[in-house]
Write a structure and sequence with these properties.
Elements (H helix, E strand, L loop, with lengths): L6 E2 L4 E2 L17 H17 L5 H37 L1
Length: about 90
């Protein structure tokens, strides 16, 4: 069975990995630097537009929002890991 993933043809960006679905945890494989780079690309796209296609702009905003949500979860996990390590070292 072939799995259909939503892929941005520009950079083969796997938007499925940044899903907004309730209750779905993102994987530890989400790289913070990769996510920030993608956000920079989205911002750059808007800055280059003289006439923004509303539909395409909406897609970019949704993609950016999903990335930001995924980053928040990932950063919280990283913060927790650092706290656990610090706690272990203090014992």
């Amino acid at each position: 069975m072939t799995e259909n993933k939503k892929v941005n043809p520009v950079r083969n960006f796997d938007t499925e990995r940044f899903s907004q679905k309730q209750g779905k945890e993102i994987s530890n494989g989400v790289k913070i630097s990769e996510s920030l780079g993608k956000l920079e690309e989205i911002v750059s796209w808007f800055e280059k537009q003289t006439d923004v296609d509303v539909e395409e702009g909406l897609k970019k905003v949704k993609e950016g929002a999903a990335i930001i949500k995924a980053l928040k979860v990932r950063l919280k996990k990283v913060e927790t890991e650092f706290s656990e390590i610090r706690h272990e070292l203090e014992e």
